[in-house]
Amino acid sequence: MSNIDWSMLVTREQREAKEAADARKDHFPNLEPDQFWFVVRASGFEPELLAWVEAMKDEPNPANWAAASSKLDFGKFFERDHPFVEDARQAIGMSVQELDALWLYGAA
Question: Which GO terms label this protein's molecular function in UniProt (predicted)?
Answer without folding.
Answer: intramolecular phosphotransferase activity
